[in-house]
Amino acid sequence: MPLSYADDFDRVLAASGPPAVFTLTADGELRLHADRTRDAWQRLAGGAAPPHEPCHCLLRDQATGWVQYALVTSPVLCASHPRADVWRYADEAEALAALARAGQPPVWRGDRL
Predict the structure, then answer these.
(1) Whether residue 48 has pLDDT greater than 90
(2) pTM, full prediction
(3) Which residues, other chains included, contact 76 with Cβ-Cβ below 8 Å and sequence gap of 6+?
(4) Which long-range contacts (CB under 8 A, 24 or more apart) does 102-108 make?
(5) If exposure means fewest CB atoms within 10 Å of the residue's CB, which of 14, 20, 44, 112 is most exposed?
């Protein structure tokens, strides 16, 4: 079953708004992560609106190994991160299956999940 959104704002923004970064809430729902979106636009988009194309990613913090799922609605915005490894997957199901392999809590020190 696909992930749900925190509310209609997040669903509409993910489907047709400007590219953004969405992470999971404590309830397991996708919600806009405004700070990460702003950071990615400033670091990677160069002031221009990047193309809208959903990317299913896992982000692994390089210091702690903590892994989280992110829906990023442009490949430009998930090209790299200065403090995280960014792993892209073909779809949500593949990304979530990889996240499950990281365990609970999702901490992974090995190669790509």
Answers:
(1) no
(2) 0.94
(3) 19, 44, 45, 50, 51
(4) 102/67, 105/66, 106/66, 106/67, 106/68, 107/64, 107/65, 107/66, 107/67, 108/60, 108/65, 108/67
(5) 112
